[in-house]
Amino acid sequence: MQTYQLDVVVSRGSSIESRHRVHAAAWDASAGLVGSTRDPFLVVPWRSCAKPFQVMPLLETGGFDELVWGDDELALACASHGGEPEHVAVALRMLESIGMEEGDLACGPHEPLARRGVKLLRDAGHAPTRLHNNCSGKHAAMLARAHVSGWSTHGYERDGHQVQLAALESVSRWSGVPADKIERAIDGCGVVVFGFPLAYMSRAYAMLAASATRGDELASRIARAVRTRPLLFGGTDRFDTILVEETSGRVIAKIGAEGIHSAALLEQGIGVVVKVEDGASRAQYPALLRLLQLHGALPDPLPARLQDFARPRIKNTRGEVVGDVRVVDA
Asked: How far apart are CA 88 and CA 68, in angstroms?
């Protein structure tokens, strides 16, 4: 089994100013756990990395097709989007197709995550709405699951609701962790979040990669939606979108809050996950990119658009470069 060096340091001049400890796991769909950093069995919340698996019940039961939804809606359901006009329009369309509106979303409003989204909203003189929430697509899909199944939409986000029980079963099936062993809490957007070991998070993405490569319908539809709608999956300056574009869809990564990130290496049938111990988002991109390079999913040197994520520059208030963020040299 491979052991990686993925810890991240922050420099200022010639000094190391800060350090971020990184845990990671890599799972091969045919060989099991094939690599790790620190504790691959660390139990943490999976956050938004679970989104592709949370929408699966709607696909499996035929509700998605009953609504005549397509790749736009599926990509947004899996997304942590940037709150740009394209995202808001699809989320609104999803709600209108089931006779609902923004106020039915259980997520709260927040400023767009994409710089373009922030600028356009401010230039228009508008305040953020729930549709701008990066999870609005996931929430709209959850409301749709309740709607097409004839369940109450009230409390759809709460632990114990049929929508959340179906999502739990999906996460359990793909990760291989029994449902009663998965910890549950409340995510940043208000729905149930799932906690279990990193190794089995990487397993879920490995199974997704292998299933999509075989042409299995469920995984293939999700992979196609992300590959063909990368903007809806993230945004103009969002890491997940840029990675999909730069790998021509061979790698599908899903960001989560507090320094967690999962990815499916479709051609290799491998799933990986990184978790920055202190939750710093600035460290997760360099760590994940190095891990993808180690598995041959990205070249060295990286494409220009990914280099800024791999080694972000630290600037002072005058715009001068005074340091950087990087993976520790092995």
From this structure: 19
Length of the chain: 330
Structure tokens at 320: 């001068």
- pLDDT, one tens digit per residue, over 264-318 is 999 999 999 999 999 999 999 999 999 999 999 999 999 999 999 999 999 999 9
Asked if residues 60 and 148 have their Cβ atoms less than 8 Å apart, the reply is no
d(C-alpha 110, C-alpha 189), whole Å: 10
Residue 86 and residue 114 in contact, taking contact as beta carbons nearer than 8 Å: no
**Measured CA distances, 298 to 89, 246, 307 (Å):** 33, 9, 11
**Which stretches within 215-329 are classed as H helix?**
217-228, 230-233, 239-246, 281-294, 304-310
Q: What is the C-alpha to C-alpha distance for residues 8 and 192, in angstroms, rounded to an integer? A: 30
Neighbouring residues of 165: CB distance < 8 A, sequence distance ≥ 6 = none
Model-level pTM greater than 0.85? Answer: yes
Q: Which residues lie closer than 8 Å to 234 by C-beta, 6 or more apart?
A: 79, 80, 81, 82, 240, 241, 242, 244, 255
**Cis peptide leading into 286, omega within 30 of 0?**
no
Q: Measured between alpha carbons, how far is 209 from 264 in angstroms, rounded to an integer? A: 5
H/E segment holding residue 26: strand 22-28
3-state secondary structure of 60: helix
The helix (H) or strand (E) run that includes residue 95 is helix 85-97
**Continuous segment of H or E residues that includes residue 256:** strand 251-256
- 57-70 pLDDT per residue, tens: 999 999 999 999 99
